[in-house]
Design goal:
Length: 439
Amino acid sequence: MTRHLAIVGSGPAGYYTAEAAQKKWGDDVRVDVFDTLPVPFGLIRTGVAPDHQSIKGVSRRYETTALSDNVRFVGNVTIGQDVTVEELQGLYDAVVFATGAPHDKPLGLPGEDLANVFGSAAFVGWYNGHPQFAQLDPDLSGKSAVVIGMGNVALDVARILSKTEDEFAGSDIVNHALEALKASRLTTVTIVGRRGPHQIMMTPKELGELMHLLRATPRVDPADLPAPEDDAILEPGLRKSVGHLRSFAAIPESERADKAVEIDFDMFASPVRLIGTGKVEGVEVERTRVEAGRAVGTGETYVIPVDLVVACIGYRSSPIPGVPFDERAGKFANDEGRILPGLYAVGWARRGPTGTIGTNRPDGFGVIDRIAEDLASGALGTVTRQGRAGFDALAEERQLDIVTFRDWKKIEEAEAQAAREGAPREKFVDIASMIRARG
């Protein structure tokens, strides 16, 4: 008996789930992978830093799955708008939400609506060419930027803001962002975090990159570092990361003199409000101390003068009409991936924005095991569903302009042809251009 599976979202979680379905049912499954955009791969395309091309290479694995006969990419279709969730449930044995967490978690601070204040989803989307954020147009004419957060996304943003044009060789940063960064006048990028070195979420490889920037140098206040012997209790990766921070603190001032940009780690600092008239001019922070792993305010405050703020404090999934959503956690309400009978969640849509790209693989295989259990137990009913054929009939009736994976390959070829010298591609940053490139 052929099983029909709909996966909403074509990023890592979506394609790992499709791969798991193939391994579970072989030729006896048909998988349709839906995406609002005409292009696949989700945050691999629009979230991973453009100068981290080796990480983006994982998409080749998903391409193997996508080009197989029983998996189909259905791009340019918005579930909940073009097609309802209820309609999908009537057509497929199971519907899996692999939509990731594409929206910024709000700061929740006074002044966050000032001009030149951005969340990382928007800012990263801007320099990665996401159609939703391509027109963001941040003002980089000031001297000082503040990046709020102590994870790898904050590091990505700080690094991108600090690089020279030559350092983007081989990357797929989009032209509009590259031109803006070339004209940037930033001299200080301050990374602000509520807690200290032992609580950072930055990984050693990404931290180590800061030591090799052509025009920028990192700074850590030695007073923020715990006693070296205290590092012994840390797990190896974090211990190595803290070792990088110690190296930053030890850089002599003579070496800093030749660098035009400073990346300053301001730890034990919790933002309390953003200040400005129309446009952000400062970030007021409260000095903290760490008690039992938590940041506790000391009452001491100060203001960091600033011209640009990027908040890298986390992400939220997109609610979809008819699907229970946990507003507090910013993800679909679920029990180990089960939302309601026939509805499932995987990846960030299931667990929130945690883990690496690879974390989504066991997550995808796990949700397929649960779907198999529910099918075997009869929990999903015994109705024979039409699957792909039924959706195609609905799409034709509604005149939906579906983009297939082979269409995407034509878009990809056009992006490669438009690339500047040394770059792998120049992304189309609006949907109409993508559709035209399909032919």
